[in-house]
Amino acid sequence: MSESKIAPAPPAPNAVVFQCETNRPVDAGVIIPVLNAARFLPQALTSVARQHDVSLEVVVIDDGSIDDSVEVAREMLSRHRDVFARSLIIRHAERAGPAAARDTGMRRLSAGAALLLDADNVLYPRCARRCLDALEASGAAFVYPILRVFGLRSALLSYAPFDVDRLSRASYIDALALVRRSAWEAVGGFPNLAEGLEDFAFWLALVDKGFVGAQVPEILAAYRFHNASRNRAATQHVPALCARLRAAFPWTRLP
Fold first, then answer.
1. pLDDT for 223-244, tens place per residue?
2. Domain carrying residue 192
3. pLDDT at 3 (0 to 100)
4. What is the C-alpha to C-alpha distance for residues 179 and 220, in angstroms, rounded to an integer?
């Protein structure tokens, strides 16, 4: 298979603005990129705090917000400082995009795997535990649950089992997945696509390196569909994005 022609984002200058460490072991991390999401963060972080039977570290990456995202995240993580084994807020010096934000989170991670959670989505209480069990049992590079869509639409996302042929034809796996840090390192980070679909490009990059994913066949999280949803905004760029992905991964059969 070919080497990806979509480079990862360069490391973004950043600073730690909140940190809470404990002596408890960490089972997995949760990486939450944030851009002007103060209104959604309380629900997202509360859903992480309510995870069952798992010890988590939480890394929030603020990507240049101009609202109260950092203050809201600091208040929520302080409130739950006895719940999380480790928590961090990292602030980018300037906006660098979601790929760079997730890369920043991965670099700061102490766990061997991270659950990727967008700030406007929520986890159901068994999500982290079920995904971690599936990752260990399958040996896959990443695992993903089914998501219930709420808000302006009602639907299901990531409802199909992992299949390379299906992935070569269309994006059908949401960004919400538990990813091994070693797999992320192997592909050099998240492909930098300013227009969107960087999660799809990341799954393709993993497959291009010989990795596979696995589905957790349970509804374990919820995806909020709203007017500012990034995937909704990306639809106008789909033809150009597909052309870039076809060039980077010639084995795909994208339209």
1. 999 776 555 555 666 888 899 9
2. 14-248
3. 44
4. 16
Q: Considering the domain boundaries, does residue 78 fall inside one?
A: yes
Cα 93 to Cα 106: distance, rounded to the nearest angstrom: 17
Model-wide pTM > 0.90: yes
Distances (CA, A) of 102 to 105, 137, 227: 5, 25, 23
Q: What is the pLDDT of residues 11-29, one digit of tens each?
A: 999 999 999 999 999 999 9
Is 132 contained in some domain? yes
| Tally of domains in the chain | 1
Residue 8 counted as domain residue = no
Tell me the average pLDDT across 155-180: 97
Kindly state the tokens that stand for 37.
């999401």
Q: Is 6 within a domain? A: no
- The CATH number linked to 229 is 3.90.550.10
* DSSP assignment of the chain: -PPPSSPBPPPPPEEEEEEEE-SS--SEEEEEEESS-TTTHHHHHHHHHT--S--EEEEEEE-S-SSSHHHHHHHHHHHTTTT-SEEEEEEESS---HHHHHHHHHHH--SSEEEE--TT-EE-TTHHHHHHHHHHHH--SEEEEEEEEEES--EEES-SPP-HHHHHH---S-S--EEEHHHHHHHTS-B--TTS-HHHHHHHHHHHTT--EEEEEEEEEEEEE-TT-HHHHHGGGHHHHHHHHHHH-TT----
